[in-house]
């Protein structure tokens, strides 16, 4: 394999602080394939070479013929455009969703379309979104533990970066961990409620008044006559 292509692929990936796994997911290939490309053991086909060049926003000729000069990457917050290319309206970024929306025309785009290096935050947003999905759709203590682990993993990933985006995502991690505490109490209360242990249910649910349907269960517990643990 052409050593220039192999070297360029590795240098570009490292420039954006990406793992081989993230690049593989973005290009739709197995992790091992990216490793073999960078090691010079395999050569991507023409279609994939074009896709790689588009991913890093360079020409195919630059990718194949010249040794890429890696200039230190600017912080993401400085690299992202501020205005919509279509109408000039201000772009509003949703870093948790990985999207941006024009405040004027309403057009929405993936942030990675505007800035390929943003894909490095994918493991963080994936963990955060999965954790929030759990909190919104499950009611077991086991699911609370799973969500807590995901928020902690996301926070650990955030600590690897020192920029505005990672700081914003870290806030989601902290807020999520605080919500998990409420969620755990709620799950215990709901468990007692389902088993008609109304006194025990009240002890827990009173701690999380206003959370989901806690108030409704509290009222039903108080309205139950002769309920015993």
**Tell me about the biggest sheet?**
3 strands, antiparallel
Quickly count the domains.
3
**Could you state the order of secondary-structure elements as H and E?**
HHHHHHEEEHHHHHH
Mean pLDDT, nearest integer? Answer: 87
Distance between the termini: 72 Å
Spatial strand order of the main sheet? 1-2-3
Shape: elongated
Helix content: 55-70%
Our count of helices gives 12
Class based on secondary structure composition and strand pairing: mainly alpha
| Unreliably modeled segments | none
Radius of gyration, taken over Cα atoms and rounded to an integer in Å? 24 Å
How would you concisely characterize the structure shown here?
The chain is mostly helical and 229 residues long. It has helices at residues 3-15, 20-27, 31-38, 46-55, 60-65, 76-79, 111-114, 122-137, 141-158, 164-194, 198-205, 214-223, and strands at residues 91-94, 99-102, 108-110.
Structure description:
The chain has 229 residues and is mainly α. The protein has three domains: 3-65, lambda repressor-like DNA-binding domains (434 Repressor (Amino-terminal Domain), Orthogonal Bundle); 76-119, no CATH class; 120-223. It is 59% helix and 5% strand. A three-stranded antiparallel sheet has the order 1-2-3. Helix 2 (20-27) crosses helix 3, helix 9 runs antiparallel to helix 10 and helix 11 packs antiparallel against helix 12 (214-223). The longest helix has 31 residues, at 164-194. The chain starts with a helix and ends in a 6-residue tail after the last helix. The mean pLDDT is 87.
Which terms summarize this structure?
434 Repressor (Amino-terminal Domain); 3 domains
């Amino acid at each position: 394999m052409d050593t220039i292509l192999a070297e360029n692929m590795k240098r570009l990936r490292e420039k954006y602080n990406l793992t081989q796994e993230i690049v593989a997911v973005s290009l739709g290939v197995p992790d091992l394939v990216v490793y073999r490309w960078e090691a010079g053991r395999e050569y991507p086909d023409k279609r994939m070479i074009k896709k790689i060049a588009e991913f890093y926003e360079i020409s195919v000729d630059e990718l194949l013929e010249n040794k890429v000069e890696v200039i230190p990457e600017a912080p993401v917050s400085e690299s992202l455009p501020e205005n919509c290319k279509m109408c000039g309206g201000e772009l509003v970024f949703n870093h948790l969703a990985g999207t941006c929306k024009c405040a004027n025309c309403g057009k929405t785009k993936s942030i990675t379309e505007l800035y390929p290096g943003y894909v490095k935050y994918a493991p963080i947003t994936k963990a955060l979104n999965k954790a929030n999905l759990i909190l919104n759709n499950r009611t077991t203590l086991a699911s609370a533990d799973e969500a807590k682990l995901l928020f902690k993993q996301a926070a650990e990933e955030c600590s690897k970066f020192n920029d505005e985006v990672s700081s914003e995502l870290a806030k989601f991690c902290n807020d999520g961990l605080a919500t998990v505490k409420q969620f755990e109490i709620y799950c215990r209360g709901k468990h007692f409620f389902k088993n008609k242990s109304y006194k025990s249910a009240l002890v827990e649910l009173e701690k999380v008044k206003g959370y989901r349907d806690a108030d409704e269960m509290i009222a039903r517990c108080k309205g139950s006559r002769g309920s015993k643990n």
